[in-house]
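INFO  loader      accepted 1 record
INFO  loader      residues=225
INFO  predictor   begin
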Amino acid sequence: MSLDLLLLAALAAFLVFRLRSVLGRRTGNERPPLEPESHRDEQQSQPATQNSNDENVVALPDRQPDDAFIEQAGGDLGENLRKIRSADSSFNSKTFVEGGSAAFEMIATSFATGDRETLRPLLSDEVYENFAGAIVERADKGHTMEMTLVGIQSSEIIEASMDGRVAFVTVKFVTEQIEVTRDSAGDVIEGDPTRVTTVTDIWTFARNTRSRNPNWTLVATEAPN
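INFO  predictor   done
INFO  writer      dumping tokens
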């Protein structure tokens, strides 16, 4: 896949690269991206038709809270979303998902192109070390990754919590993608450039609600059990 696809900004929603499922935990012991063990449901084949640079940081949308969305969530999830909103009056559960999708695309694109400078402010230290390590390993092997995000089928908040001043929100992304890995000679060693697959990723974002910085960072990635 050519690298002339545009890197979408904060609220872009579709058509870029994406990561494969990455196994990980909030402790930071994330598994590097692009492991062959990633969980996925393949569909029928079809033709593929900065350290702290603010401009590279995705700020999830700052809008008025949506009570109806929280009410619909209900249970522990709804209660925890209320706690986050109480700690951060700018938090909006519904539009958070839109910003999460934008962050997903930006991080996926930056990983695919090996752009560690852009990744740095978007990720926690532990997640960044694993992503950067995978990028270096890929380069050392002479491999290149081609990945197209065909579309985001769904994105939804599935978990939320407060740990002291820090808010955690977990979003499940279901996407359609085309992915290929090539060796130094350009031969395909994994994937199929004509196959669209459906992939589920679960990402957790965090933010200190007392911080003046409105940005959220990715602190954990995992695949569904």
